[in-house]
Each structure stands twice: as structure tokens, then as C-alpha cells.
Amino acid sequence: MTDGRPVPGSVYFYQPSKVAPAIFAALFFISGAWHLWQCIHYKSFKITALHPFCCLLFVVGFAFREYGAYHISNVTVYLVSTICIYSAPPILELANYHVLGRILYYVPYFAPLHPGRTLTTFGMISTLVEVLNALGVSLLANPNVKSQSAQDLGHVLMKMALILQMVVIIWTFEAALMLSNSFLWNGSHPRLYLPEDYHVYLAQDGVTELQGPGWESEQSWVMTFIDPCGLTAMLSGQNKQGGQNKKFWETNGFENLPLVRNREGQV
Hints:
The chain has 267 residues and is mostly helical. The protein has 9 helices and 2 strands; from the N terminus they run αααααααββαα.
């Protein structure tokens, strides 16, 4: 049964659903194939390449979960499915951050920080989440953990896993949201609105597209992570696009227009 009751010999602690994983694997395959076609059609691998990769992780994870539903004592299948399913959401978040960065490149006058730093800053956060996921999975499934404290933590995580992985909860609040996010980008693909070249940006009139010089960064990657807004460089006078020097969009001939007009010329 898939009612969440403990099942002897099951590495899932219960009988996993035999229907939901197949449905989600098929839907993520459709979305992933669609994303791959869009990457090729719109030449948008630099913007959305992570989306088909994320869908691939979900497809593999749910395919193994479907197989595991018929082989509930197979630890390897359980590990592969769990790692893939738990690793995909942070990568999808990273893909969203990357699109956010490209949006900030397109409207630089609205960017609260260097657009390129959205990927590095939030990417580090996603990496941390991935590490925590890996540690959690290892404590849940590794039979070689001997210390009492680690075993106690493992028992707590197992109880949490029993709650979090019960069919209704995981499908409704995890997989369904990730699937909705993936199909959202299918229906409103970023390349329909953003140029292929990140140097191209939207002028302050909200209509004209201009070729810009791009953003410069004098900070090291360490300082970029510590200070994504570039406050230290600005205060020290090292920021060429701040301080005494005008930003490139402030000398493009549209700098005196209100931000931002629509296509009818209204603010």
C-alpha cells in the first residue's frame, strides 16, 4: 500500500507509489525535450542549458523511483533515485538565477548588483544546498555509520524522510512545483524576450535596444561572493561604473527619459 505505513524490508520504509513516478518521469521528459528543442531553435544554450539538464535529473530520478517501487529492498536504486530527485531542485534554482542575471543585463539601470554576480552568489548558495543534500542522503542510507550521534541523527532524518517522502506530500509540494516551473519556462521562454548577446540592453524608453560595452568587475571571485553588491569597490573608488564615472546607460542619449515607457509611450 502507498498510505505511508511502514513496510518490512522496504528501504523507503513504506510502499512507494507505482503510478506517480511514471507520470512525473514522462512529464519531465516532455518538458526536457521541449527545452532542448528550444535551446537549439533559439540558440539559447548560454541562457537555458540548465533547464533540460535539470529535467534529465528528474527523469532519471523518477524512472529509478518507479523501478524501486517494484524492488523496494534495492538500496542502489533507492540511492540513485533519491540523489537525482534531491539534486535537481537546487540546479533548477540556479537556472532561474541565471535567467535573472540575464534580465538584469537587459535592464542594467534596475540592477541592484552586477548581473554576473547573481549566478556566482546564488550559485554558491545552491552548492551549499547540494552538499547538505548529499550529507543527508549519506546519513540516511550508509550502513557503515558507527557513531551514536550520527546514528541518532540518521534516525531523526529517517523519520523526517518518512514524512517528507509520503506520496501526497512529495508529489504536491515538491515535484509538482518543480514541474510547473519547468513548463513555465517552456511556455514563456527567456529568448522570446531577451537578446542572445548579453551586451544588448534596453534603453530607458522601453523600446530601443542598444549595444552596450558590458559590465566590468575589478573584484576577485572571493570578494564577489562576500560583497556581491560591490560596496567595497564603490567606497574605495575602484568601481569604474560607479563613483565619479557615469554608468554606460547614463550617456546613451536616453538618460533623461523616465524609467520605463511602454510601447505606447506612456510611463
